[in-house]
Design brief:
- Two copies of one chain form a homodimer.
- The first copy, chain A, has about 230 residues and is α+β, with helices and mostly antiparallel strands.
- The first copy, chain A, folds into two domains: about 140 residues, Jelly Rolls; about 80 residues, Orthogonal Bundle (Arc Repressor Mutant, subunit A).
- Helix content of chain A is about 40%, strand content about 25%.
- The first copy, chain A, has seven helices and eleven strands.
- A four-stranded antiparallel beta sheet of chain A has the order 1-8-3-6. In chain A, strands 2-7-4-5 form a four-stranded antiparallel beta sheet.
- In chain A, a hairpin with a 5-residue loop joins strand 4 and strand 5.
- In chain A, helix 2 packs across helix 3, helix 4 packs across helix 7 and helix 5 crosses helix 6.
- The relative contact order of chain A is 0.15.
- The interface between A and B is large, with 42 and 43 residues.
- The structure holds a DNA duplex (30 and 30 nucleotides).
Chain lengths: ~230, ~230
DNA sequence: CGCCCTATTGAGACTTGTCAAGTCGGGTGG
DNA sequence: CCACCCGACTTGACAAGTCTCAATAGGGCG
């Protein structure tokens, strides 16, 4: 995220934020829960979109792939995130679980209707849409302007901002190097070398391929925002 | 734009689409018109957002710049486009005119209120928000996966899709090479070389720096979508 | 223990960025 | 009307960054 915006974004905003107990109950009455095992799909690109989804537990990944087979990972999703909100007739991306996940499905039509009756819910959806766009604009900025190791810091910063406590220095990466490469517009080799560079420079420590420790958060943030 | 989506996107959708005469009049009653001369600003990053804007005539450019001075152009805007719709407290980008432009300002609060009374308007805004996100995702795809000359084709394809007739082969580029470079995440030199390469290969002809002719649209489209 | 998948590392090719020089064209002043 | 000037664009040579291909290392699981 860019420094210019962080102050007025609450990434923890969910559709439930600020609702009364009664309003929550009305929203909950629409919800059905669903488990998605690691590696399984929540939905596929080009299938009809009839629900929005809220990730309750676990971690998911949103990707788009083209006819020629290459793919771009658009986002990694954390508990509380709303999925498929900028709906059209069909989903425009595929969402799959990186970890065993629990998802709330909310049928589109009643969800829209409820927004008309609960202004706070409508505001939440609006804000969340804004957050999604802002996230995507950050990604455009990163892909357009940053070098490989800066992009990796950009990702690490995003992931660590979802950690329960900001002081947690240990990060569990649920995704593969290929997922990271496809998110950052790089190859796995370049991602690997970028990790190596950050380790050599004492900014992170790599315990295993999927466990990194942030040693110098200030420098990491600086690199993440560099452009 | 990706081929997967083109069928269900109408880029000409505006907030007025499908409104009755009466509804149009109610919307128009909120509107004030404003001229913005070429090079002037519609609004700046970090200023309070109190209106949305619809470009009526001309061409504008949306950009974001960072504290370290580098900038990313997020979009080039054409007549009918809605500007500043994913509002927050403050604008997150700067919008300026590339050509003398005419803009409709619509105060935010009554605009939101009117959406509650005119469902078609609400649907239009929703769809337009979706189009904006889709456009941004396309840009992520382009910056993440495409080579320089493919990115240039990506831009040419976008611009030509706004031409009045699809068969018009002559394109007027209102923006500078620097604007193009900042949009595509390249340098002006690389953009210039990419144009040269496309010309050498007979895909385009360059009459002047700001006038290109599309000679082989099929190949251009293919390159634009390549990934 | 060994297999398989993933990740790392290395060498060389290709693409893009950087720096510098040169060209083009529109606008101004003589 | 022409010459000059200035900004924008192009082109060239080289450096830096990233990709590709190939070989090696590591970790999880049967």
């Amino acid at each position: 995220m860019s420094p210019e915006r962080n102050q007025d974004v609450d990434p923890r905003l969910t559709i439930y934020s600020g609702l009364s107990a009664n309003e929550r109950a009305r929203l909950d009455s629409l919800v059905t829960r669903r488990r998605v095992e690691a590696g399984a799909y929540l939905f596929h690109q080009h299938t009809p979109a009839r629900s929005v989804h809220m990730l309750e537990e676990g971690m998911m990944m949103m990707e788009r792939s083209s006819s020629t087979g290459r793919r771009q990972v658009m986002a990694f999703m954390h508990p509380g995130n709303l999925i498929g909100i900028n709906y059209r007739e069909h989903y425009e991306f595929t969402v799959s679980a990186l970890r065993p996940s629990l998802v709330r499905d909310i049928p589109l039509k009643p969800f829209i209707a409820l927004q008309d009756e609960v202004p706070q819910l409508k505001d939440n959806v609006r804000s969340i849409s804004g957050n999604i766009l802002a996230h995507t604009l950050d990604q455009v900025f990163a892909l357009g302007q940053k070098k490989a190791h800066e992009r990796v810091c950009f990702l690490l910063k995003q992931l660590s901002s979802w950690q329960p406590s900001a002081s947690a220095h240990r990060l569990e990466l649920a995704m593969t190097r290929q997922d990271i490469a496809d998110y950052l517009g790089l190859t796995i080799e370049t991602v690997s070398r970028a990790f190596g560079k950050l380790k050599r420079e004492g900014i992170i420590n790599i315990h295993s391929a999927h466990t990194v420790e942030i040693l110098d958060r200030a420098t990491m943030n600086e690199l993440a925002l560099a452009d």
